[in-house]
Design the sequence.
């Protein structure tokens, strides 16, 4: 394969950024100096192609340095990694965070997603638009930033040799205004952590959050850190999987797959190597639990990964974290380095950074993203436990799932399974946001009622009444005030046609404009569809268009349009490749049928 | 004595039921293979026997007992005991919606009569989404003398990308860019073909099912209103340029070659050619005036 490039050469800054990551090029073939040997030896082929997976890190290096990805910069990256420019262009243009047009060093991303709308994000964006023009210049509208407990939220990035990114939540107009005028960045406001419920006196999953020093391995060791990994090594891999199976732990990433069964399949897989992937992409609107864990208890995440790798025989681990979580990324990287220094880690763990694509949370899209490709989900079967990352057996787990495993190994699976319900064991983290007095992360036993959870968050503001709850984020569905006694368990929510999903619980009081919420959800799916399959690519577009015209014309004959939405919904659910398309109509459907948004 | 040569295990036979009819297929075949063997006409858009199944169009979905969602017949391998329905309400609904959604956003008028037959069979009425809906309509890209790209007709079946890439040409001049409804086929930074890596093999044209990729000669004749397939003949011949011996089909109208194809099932070409066989025919018709 011939890498043909016809653009301008890369700038010195771009070359410095790329070489900083990859090292100096060795030959002319990779864009370096001409060397006599170049006339006789062609570098390329397999050895270079095997570095394809470095494409996203290289793109981040360019964008972090210059604020965008130029044609010259991309083409230099293509020569260094031996990637055809048309393919690389397909990758850059897939991810929302990469800019293909020149822009300034400063970028302020303002969340206008559901929970932030409840906290005045629309007014904030309107004010910014008045003073700084339409989004797309220095400020940008963003889907959920995972800071919904401190809404409204923003993320600021400053490109340059000393790239920096910082979450600002809650953000005020004055703060956003100051940042956009080149002022100092406000420090992350920290609100007190939400209360947690612990069963039987023993601490829950959040017991170290706010207690342990997240930067210090000694502090983690003082709080019982790495005891589970040590115990696992004493027990042996088979016994660990036995306990996890006994615990009847179901994955916390959204799909509720039995973790024990997944681990067993990978452990037994013949092909080598085995890979471990920790899914920390957390982009479901309304979800922030994995961020809280990674920011405040990062060593536990690392220990969970080491334990999973030990049990399933993985040679290498990746943690894929969304780029909007700079603090979490830094804390995890630090935790890996400190643990390694102490000889506590046997496996190699690499942190990979997403680039603004909800779909990359889907397990196989995530593999493609790590491999340096567009985040398009793969058709299953084959399943990741057989053919996963780089085509090898892979165990992929959510951050919260891995934290649960630590306690299972210490306490034993049977003891773990005594908490929760028969079919949904253990504790569960719920991200409560929207119109409650104390938004935050709450840990309760599975099966706790939605009503009790909302009461823990101290309920609604004075004089307000409940309008609806969105359970499970954009991929979930609306629950009505009459359904508040639903037990928060997999089977309990299923019984009313809802889902726990990622643990997002967004509460709306009577002031919320549910029409706008439905439109936001429709826009979210249209924006985030990878575009691969027809039902989802065109279906999410049509769903948004039809919803817009339905809500715009309150007096027209709506039956035909409602029928169209129902027809599209069924095809998306039945014929889409992945969970995104399959769930893209759920919330809107339940909004129309359960909440009767059209009648209000 | 000579070492025994391992010739592979005999392929196992796998029994499946399709619409109540039992059939045995060799392991590794797809549901689509089984449907074809039973002569169950199954719509396909992104599938081609010479390309790796990419299963993105979803028009071939069938209902598999025990599966929550429908499965793509073109890529799903048969497994023993599968019970499959190809004409259930759910299947008909999804096939109809896929065709409707596509045709409401893309100009499918130049698709084959088979595609139009499926539209009729499933009652696809693309206009029911309304007249104001977004489409992929855009100006035709004419940036070279050999072929044009009219992405208003592109259903994003990925076939051209596969043909330009690992399935045939290994040139990688085009890829899928953007995402969601904005996803589209593109060269790097949307540069014209002369600035891209394209070598004008035309293999993308050979696999395109919609007429989005078209010989410039055909495009110009259509624009002039002179394209008339009823007046065309197809002559099979062998490419004169090199010793590979690719089979060519010369499409001739009014004693002029108007396009060149190669049969998909030809053992030499599998439908693919190089720039010489595909476009190097002008010398034949350089007539003395
Ligand atoms: C569109 C989509 C987005 C997803 N996003 C996430 C995510 O951000 N984090 C996550 O852990 N799982 C996510 N999932 C679920 C994963 O595909 C996968 O099931 C999960 O990571 C497996 O881990 P678990 O078994 O520990 O839950 C997503 C699924 C879909 C379909
Ligand atoms: S369902 Fe949507 S997100 Fe999933 S593969 Fe299809 S187009 Fe992509
Ligand atoms: S003509 Fe050949 S090289 Fe050019 S885009 Fe098509 S398949 Fe690729
Ligand atoms: S140009 Fe043709 S072959 Fe390529 S994706 Fe579009 S319809 Fe398919
Ligand atoms: S941070 Fe704004 S909705 Fe989550
Ligand atoms: S033909 Fe099977 S998905 Fe396109």
Sequence:
């Amino acid at each position: 394969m011939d890498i043909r490039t016809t653009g301008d050469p890369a700038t010195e800054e771009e070359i410095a950024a790329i070489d900083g990551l990859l090292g100096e090029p060795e030959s002319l073939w990779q864009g370096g100096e001409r060397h006599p040997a170049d006339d006789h030896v062609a570098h390329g082929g397999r050895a270079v192609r095997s570095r394809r997976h470095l494409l996203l890190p290289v793109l981040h290096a360019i964008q972090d340095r210059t604020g965008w990805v130029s044609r010259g910069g991309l083409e230099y990256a293509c020569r260094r990694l031996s990637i055809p420019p048309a393919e690389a262009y397909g990758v850059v243009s897939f991810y929302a965070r990469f800019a293909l047009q020149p822009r300034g060093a400063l970028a302020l991303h303002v969340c206008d997603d559901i929970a932030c709308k409840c906290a005045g994000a629309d007014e904030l964006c309107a004010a910014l638009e008045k003073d700084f023009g339409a989004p797309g210049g220095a400020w940008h509208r963003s889907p959920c930033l995972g800071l919904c407990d401190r809404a409204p939220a923003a993320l600021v990035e400053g490109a340059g040799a000393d790239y920096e990114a910082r979450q600002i939540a809650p953000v005020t107009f004055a703060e956003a205004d100051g940042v956009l005028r080149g002022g100092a960045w406000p420090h992350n406001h920290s609100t007190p952590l939400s209360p947690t419920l612990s069963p039987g006196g023993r601490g829950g999953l959040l017991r170290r959050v706010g207690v342990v020093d997240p930067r210090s391995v000694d502090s983690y060791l003082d709080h019982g850190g790495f005891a589970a990994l040590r115990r696992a090594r004493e027990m042996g891999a088979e016994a660990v999987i036995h306990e996890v199976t006994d615990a009847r732990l179901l994955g916390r990433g959204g799909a509720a797959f039995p973790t024990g069964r997944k681990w067993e399949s990978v452990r037994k897989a013949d092909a080598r190597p085995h890979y471990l992937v920790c899914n920390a992409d957390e982009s479901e609107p309304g979800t922030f639990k994995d961020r809280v864990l990674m920011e405040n208890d990062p060593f536990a995440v690392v220990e969970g990964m080491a334990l999973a790798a030990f049990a399933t025989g993985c040679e290498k681990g990746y943690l894929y974290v969304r780029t909007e979580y700079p603090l979490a990324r830094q804390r995890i990287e630090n935790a890996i380095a400190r643990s390694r220094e102490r000889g506590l880690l046997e496996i190699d763990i690499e942190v990979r950074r997403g680039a603004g694509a909800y779909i990359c949370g889907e397990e196989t899209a995530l593999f493609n993203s790590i491999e340096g490709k567009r985040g398009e989900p793969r058709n299953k079967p084959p399943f990741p436990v057989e053919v996963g990352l780089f085509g090898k057996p892979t165990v992929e787990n959510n951050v919260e799932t891995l934290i649960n495993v630590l306690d299972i190994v210490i306490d034993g699976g049977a003891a773990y399974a005594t908490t929760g319900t028969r079919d949904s064991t253990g504790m569960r983290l719920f991200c409560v946001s929207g119109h409650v007095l104390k938004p935050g992360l709450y840990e309760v036993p599975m099966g706790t009622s939605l009503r009790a959870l909302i009461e823990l968050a101290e309920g609604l503001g004075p004089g307000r009444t409940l309008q609806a709850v969105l359970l499970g984020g954009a991929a979930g569905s609306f629950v009505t005030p009459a359904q508040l006694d639903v037990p928060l368990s997999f089977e309990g929510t299923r019984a009313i046609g809802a889902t726990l999903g990622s643990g997002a619980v967004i509460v709306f009081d009577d002031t919320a404009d549910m029409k706008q919420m439905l439109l936001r959800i429709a826009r979210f799916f249209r924006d985030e569809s990878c575009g691969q399959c027809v039902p989802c690519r065109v279906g999410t577009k049509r769903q948004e268009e039809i919803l817009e015209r339905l809500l715009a014309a309150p007096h027209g004959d709506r039956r035909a349009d409602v029928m169209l939405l129902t027809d599209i919904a069924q095809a998306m659910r039945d014929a889409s490749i992945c969970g995104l398309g399959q769930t893209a109509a759920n919330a809107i459907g339940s909004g129309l049928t359960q909440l009767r948004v059209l009648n209000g | 004595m000579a070492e025994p040569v391992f010739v592979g295990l005999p392929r196992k036979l796998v029994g499946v039921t399709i619409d109540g009819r039992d059939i045995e297929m060799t392991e590794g075949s797809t549901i689509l293979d089984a449907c074809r063997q039973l002569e169950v006409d199954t719509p396909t858009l992104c599938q081609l026997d010479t390309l790796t199944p990419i299963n993105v169009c979803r028009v071939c979905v069938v209902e598999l007992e025990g599966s929550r969602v429908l499965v793509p017949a073109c890529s799903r391998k048969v497994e023993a005991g599968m019970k499959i329905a190809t004409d259930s309400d759910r299947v008909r609904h999804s096939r109809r919606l896929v065709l409707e959604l596509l045709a409401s956003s893309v100009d499918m008028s130049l698709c084959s009569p088979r595609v139009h037959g499926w539209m009729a069979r499933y009652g696809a009425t693309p206009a029911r989404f309304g007249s104001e809906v977004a489409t992929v309509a855009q100006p035709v890209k004419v940036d070279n003398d050999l072929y044009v790209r009219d992405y208003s007709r592109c259903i994003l079946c990925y076939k051209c990308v596969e043909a330009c890439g690992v399935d045939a040409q290994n040139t990688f001049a085009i890829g899928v860019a953007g995402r969601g409804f904005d996803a589209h086929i593109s060269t790097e930074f949307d540069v014209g073909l002369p600035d891209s890596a394209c070598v004008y093999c035309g293999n993308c044209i050979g696999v395109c099912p919609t007429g989005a990729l078209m010989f410039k000669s055909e495009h110009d004749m259509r624009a002039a209103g002179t394209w008339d397939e009823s007046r065309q003949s197809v002559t099979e011949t062998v490419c004169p340029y090199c010793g590979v011996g690719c089979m060519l089909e010369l499409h001739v109208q009014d004693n002029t070659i108007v396009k060149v194809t190669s049969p998909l099932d030809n053992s030499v070409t599998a439908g693919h050619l190089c720039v010489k066989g595909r476009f190097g025919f002008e010398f034949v018709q350089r007539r003395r005036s």
Remarks:
- The helical segments of chain B are 31-37, 89-105, 113-121, 159-164, 203-207, 216-224, 275-279.
- The mean pLDDT of chain B is 95.
- Residues 30 and 77 of chain B are 4 Å apart (CA to CA).
- The longest helix of chain B spans residues 89-105.
